[in-house]
Amino acid sequence: MNQRPLFSAVIPSYNHAEYLRDAVESADRSPLVGEVVIVDDGSADGSRRIIDELSRAPGSKVRVLATPPGEQLGAHARLNQLVEAAHYDWIAILNSDDRFSPHRFTCLLPLIERDTADVFFGDLVLIDEHGQRLGLRDSLLHNEVTWPREIDPHAAARDGEWTSLLEIQNIVATTSNLVFSRAAFSRIGGFRDYRYAHDWDFAIRSAALARVRYVKQMLTFYRLHPRNTIKAPPYLKSLEVRRIFDRLHSEGMLS
Question: What is the pTM of this model?
Answer without folding.
Answer: 0.95
